[in-house]
Structure formats: structure tokens, C-alpha cells
Amino acid sequence: MSNTKNNPLVLLKKRALYYLAKREYSHLELKLKLSDYAHTLEFDEDALDLFISSLVSDGWLSNERYCEQFIHAKKNKFGRYKIIRELEEKGIEQALIEQFIGPLKNQELLYAKQVWQKKFKLLPSSKEEWSKQARFLQSRGFDVSLIKKILNAKEE
């Protein structure tokens, strides 16, 4: 009878599944989160990469699911550019980002208006106010053309 209770692989998998039960992770994000613990269990970099690959092949870890979930969670607060940048930082490939960000483009103006209305409510009455509102929307990752559509609405 082998003792699986103290088996390093079992312990690492238990930790990984604990994290994955709470939310989706990108491959890179989970690897970084597990690396210190894996090191204490004497896993080297290659062994950890192999372990991450096994989670992917077993269906526990998916950059596709992560990307889709991340975009869904952020689209009401941030624009396409900020979401793309954050996904790139999480190690998501450009092709995958493009695949999932595409549908967001059609509704981005609606989300930008909602973000703007929540913060400002009224259209800018001066150039300074216009700049302030534009900077806010730009910091949230919205495209300049969308910002102009929203802030110049009274001129239409």
C-alpha cells in the first residue's frame, strides 16, 4: 500500500485543483501561483511545466476558458485595449485573444457609455471637463473614436 498522502505530485495536484475550483487561471498565472509551493516539494521548472501540461490535457486548465471568462468579467468596466493588455500579461496568445475579443467590438460603445454614465452623468461643459472625461475613458482602455462619440453626443 503506497502512501499517496505525502506524494509530492498528489500534494501539488491538490493545491492546483483547490485554486482552479475557485476560478479559471491562465497557464502562466497558475504556474506562477504554484511555483513556490512546487519548489518546496522539490519540483524543478521542467517538472512543473510537465505538471501544468497534464492539467491542460486532463481538461482542468484551459487558456480558452480563462480568456472567455476574463473578457466576460471585465467588459462592463474596461475597454478592449486594457483587456487585451491584461490578457497578454497573463500569457494568453494573440490569436486566442482575437478570437474572443471579436464579439466585444460590436458592443464596446454600449459598455463605454455605461462606464461614462456611471462616473459622470452629464456631458462636459468645458474643454477642461471634456479632457478630464476623455482621460478617464482612455485610462479604462476605450478607443479614442468611441470616446469622441460619447463626449460629442450633444453636437449630433
UniProtKB/TrEMBL annotation:
Residues 64-99 form the RecX second three-helical domain. InterPro entries: RecX_HTH_2nd, RecX_HTH_3rd, Regulatory_RecX, WH-like_DNA-bd_sf. Its main location: cytoplasm. Residues 112-151 form the RecX third three-helical domain. The keyword Protein biosynthesis does not apply. It is found in: Cytoplasm. Keywords: Cytoplasm. Belongs to the RecX family. Modulates RecA activity. This is Regulatory protein RecX. It comes from Candidatus Methylopumilus universalis. The lineage of its organism: Bacteria, Pseudomonadati, Pseudomonadota, Betaproteobacteria, Nitrosomonadales. The gene is recX.
